Amino acid sequence: MATAAAISFSPSPQIRRLSASIAAPLRSISSLHFDSLRSNSSSLRNPNFRVSASSMRVGTPEKISTASFLDRRESGFLHFVKYHGLGNDFILVDNRDSAEPRVTPEQAVKLCDRNFGIGADGVIFAMPGVNGTDYTMRIFNSDGSEPEMCGNGVRCFARFIAELENLHGKQSFTVHTGAGLIIPEIQEDGKVKVDMGEPILKASDVPTKLPANKDQAVVKSDLNVDGVIWNVTCVSMGNPHCVTFGNKESQNLTVDELNLAAVGPKFEHHEMFPARTNTEFVEVFSHEHLKMRVWERGAGATLACGTGACAVVVAAVLEGRAGRSCTVDLPGGPLDIEWKEEDNHVYMTGPAEVVFYGSVAV
Q1: Fewer Cβ atoms within 10 A, N terminus or C terminus of the chain?
Q2: Bridge partners of 6?
Q3: Burial class (CB in 10 A: 0-12, 13-18, 19+), 133
């Protein structure tokens, strides 16, 4: 499969994490254009992405018009914008002209491949609104599954819509998702505040097969994972979360010491979670400061999970470990989370940034 990309880099911390030999020239290049590499019969049989940088041209940002780039409609090419929210990265696709995603789940898996594709945790589609909403957001995970919602993804979605519609300043709109109505608001500083709605605590609605032990909720309940008894609280933010602050052997986690790749899948596919689950491992610094690592259902270990951070604060409040307004540190950076008593809604505030613009043959 051939790939053509027009890439505009911002000198963000993510780019500076590259090795010095690579990062220095990237910071000095305004934009890069990669010519498409024509597919031959063998590459068509092997649907991996091949990028040719043999004819690289350096230009200025003025030569790339965002509007004209996104308006392109060449047959056989998918135009996209890559965004990240604290390192949780997504391929954003303008799908406003159709209620059907422009790529299949199988194609999404290939696009998300970090070696042979663009590389991302998921593909997000900006689609026409339904039931009176302004827009619809759908997402395919890197494994092709479709989650109900994604907190970091909806912030990227909001910034993408603002770019598509040429919106400036403080803006808000309504978004239909698999988790229901979500209302993101772009702040003056560029961060996005999202009304994530009310947390779902009823065990059967999370869903979990663990028996409720506090009203209809599962709070600080025992979960046997390969012989280790973990204390877990189950929360849905439109998608299922299992939150743990420790186990019988270690009541207070040091999350950086976790072997996440080993334990995460065991939670995700545990028989107590019929729809699988996202899992958050949490360290408490203070009543207003938490740190988490996440194993996401369908994506594995990611640098950030917005719905997970929301679930963590809800769980921390239910277990008496934290207040209703917290800063949650994720591997990609902090999110501000508030679970308001007045309306029972959870509000998430954090950044969303453009990584690059590109086109890919599909």
Answers
A1: C
A2: 33
A3: middle
Query: Does 305 participate in catalysis according to the annotation?
Result: yes
Query: Under DSSP, is residue 27 helix (H, G, I), strand (E, B) or coil?
Result: helix
Residue 14 carries which side chain, given as an amino acid letter? Q
Statement: the pTM of the whole predicted model exceeds 0.85: no
List phi, psi (to 5°) of 350.
-170, 180
Q: Across the strands, what pairs with 8? A: 31
Up-side HSE of residue 248: CA atoms within 13 Å toward CB? 8
Cα gap 88→91, rounded to integer Å: 11
The three-state secondary structure class of 42 is: helix
Q: Catalytic residue among 112, 234, 242, 305, which?
A: 305
Instruction: Decide if 156 is catalytic.
Output: no
Considering only CA atoms, give the Rg of the chain: 21
Determine the distance from the C-alpha atom of residue 136 to the mean position of all C-alpha atoms in its chain, rounded to a whole number. Answer: 16
Q: How is residue 298 annotated by DSSP?
A: T
Q: What is the DSSP letter of 40?
A: -
Torsion of CA 299, 305, 308, 313, to 10 degrees: 160
User: Which listed residue (112, 150, 156, 326) is catalytic?
Assistant: 150
Q: How far is it between the farthest Cα atoms of the chain?
A: 64
**Distance separating alpha carbons of residues 11 and 153, to the nearest angstrom:** 21
Dihedral sign, CA of 339, 340, 345, 348? negative
Question: β-strands 175-177, 135-141: how paired?
Answer: parallel
Q: What is the mean pLDDT of each run of 10 residues along the chain (362 residues)?
A: 41 33 27 30 35 30 53 76 96 97 97 96 97 97 95 96 93 95 95 96 98 96 97 97 94 93 98 98 98 96 96 98 98 97 97 94 82
Query: How high is the pLDDT of residue 46?
Result: 37
Identify any residues that bridge with 34 across adjacent strands, giving them in sequence order: 5
Burial group, residue 342, by CB count within 10 angstroms (0-12, 13-18, 19+): exposed
